[in-house]
Amino acid sequence: MEVSLLADHPYEINQIAKWYYNEWASQIPNVTEAMVRTSISEKSINRTDIPLAIIIRDQDELVGVAELKLKENSNYPEYKYWLGGIFVAPSKRGKGLSNLLVSEALNKAFSLGINKLHLQCEIHNVALYEKHGFKILHEARHHEIATMIMVRLAAT
Question: What's the CATH code of the domain at 90?
């Protein structure tokens, strides 16, 4: 497994856009795959600034992605840095890749001096993030889906 930045493999933008659109964005009215692709493209140019994306490749095959985002949720403008877009290819699930993505994203965020990272997840994913030190702040709704807003502080 190779962990790297999307900035090092920008040709993977199209695959990530397909994954995200099929998994989440297709359920949101008026969102197109092209819009998702544009959003991902913004994360393909940065190596030391947010937003950026971290990817996992297995023998030249893209198998997972995670994003570090800036002010992702307009309902919570006071929350600056976000972890999101954790996705593992369906054929590669159950092998610990989500844990690897979360760990790598946390390491990257903290190495950039970010000391507080938020995320929004569906309730069935809370345990994954709690294993990595995230704490529940409150419940929220995202396009009629019940979610949790969580936070992780850098170790002091």
Answer: 3.40.630.30
